[in-house]
Inverse folding.
């Protein structure tokens, strides 16, 4: 049975691999990232339908994080009342608990990321790095926080993450 195999594989191999890397590990392939974890950021529309799985909450080098596969969709109805859905977001969603508290939000997205779903209170910010500006769009509620948060070393790490990642990223 495929489902039994998949469950056994995830419960044994993935958990044992995670335990070698992370501390304070909590993993469940069936559990969702709580809806409010994403909604409370106010960074994107939450659509009409939400699903998630492969939830992980752990620490990496004493930095708490949680992640899961997430799918957010909008519902549409045609003139006959037939229902269809379009994807707002589909991918791995990761949050980190940082030691510093920020008053405003800053969002960095690869240039071809679907920015129409972002919160409209964010304004586009251009940074000092032309390479970074060419690869990413930066949206912020406050320019000062964006410049403070996105120091050159942080921009380099985001660009490295993009090089290692096969897909679209948003930070």
């Amino acid at each position: 049975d495929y489902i039994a195999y998949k469950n056994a594989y995830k419960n044994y191999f993935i958990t044992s691999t995670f335990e070698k890397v992370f501390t304070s590990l909590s993993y469940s392939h069936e559990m969702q990232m709580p809806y409010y974890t994403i909604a409370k950021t106010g960074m994107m529309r939450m659509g009409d339908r939400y699903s998630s799985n492969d939830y992980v909450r752990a620490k990496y080098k004493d930095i708490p994080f949680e992640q899961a596969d997430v799918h957010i969709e909008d519902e549409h109805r045609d003139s006959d009342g037939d229902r269809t859905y379009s994807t707002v977001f589909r991918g791995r969603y990761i949050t980190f608990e940082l030691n510093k508290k920020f008053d405003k939000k800053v969002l960095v997205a690869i240039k071809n990321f679907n920015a129409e779903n972002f919160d409209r209170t964010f304004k586009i910010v251009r940074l000092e790095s032309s390479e970074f500006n060419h690869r990413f769009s930066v949206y912020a509620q406050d320019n000062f926080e964006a410049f403070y948060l996105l120091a050159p070393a942080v921009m380099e790490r985001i660009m490295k993450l993009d090089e290692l990642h096969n897909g679209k990223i948003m930070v």
Q: What stands out?
A: The longest helix spans residues 2-21. The radius of gyration is 18 Å. The CA atoms of residues 35 and 167 lie 23 Å apart.
